[in-house]
Amino acid sequence: MLSKKNKKQKGSILLEALLSVVVLSVGITVIIQAMTSSLRSTSYNGQYSQAMILLENQLFDLMQGTTSLESFDQMQRMSGFVTNYRYELAEKDIGESFDNVLSQVKADISWKSGQKNNQININTYRLNLPDEDNK
């Protein structure tokens, strides 16, 4: 027959094993949740950076004069590999005292990530210098 001391020791070993499994499972759950949150944040930051680069390219085209003014008042989809992004450019002349050489430019880009709609809005100004030929 086993003594009382051995029976108590066997029970405490079982309790220690059960407790260690609980602590280990809680730790693994916390690590998995942290990794999931990190991946979600990294994905959003990548989409945000890509949207900023695409919007910067559209503004650059506007400043260089390669984008037509007719496209400014409508939403347009990006073409190519970035079809889930939509942008809008709007330009409005400011004040008559400047002979309409100063205009306000509004640039918006939007995209959908899962169920969430994201949008970036930029407002800036453009100085339209007269052509040398028109002087």
Query: What count of helical segments does DSSP give?
Result: 1
The profile of the biggest β sheet is:
4 strands, antiparallel
Into which percent range does the helicity of residues fall?
40-55%
The separation of the N and C termini measures 114 Å
Number of strands: 4
Structural class: alpha+beta
CA gyration radius, whole angstroms: 30 Å
Approximate shape: rod-shaped
Strand content: 25-35%
What is the mean predicted local confidence, pLDDT? 79
Number of domains as seen in the coordinates: 1
Q: Low-confidence runs (pLDDT<50, min 5 residues)? A: none
Biggest β-sheet: strands ordered side by side in the sheet: 1-2-3-4
The helix/strand series, from N terminus to C terminus, equals: HEEEE
Protein name: Type II secretion system protein
Keywords: Membrane, Transmembrane, Transmembrane helix
Give a brief outline of the structure.
This protein has one domain. It is built from one helix and four strands; from the N terminus they run αββββ. The chain has one helix at 4-64, and strands at 76-77, 85-93, 102-113, 116-127.
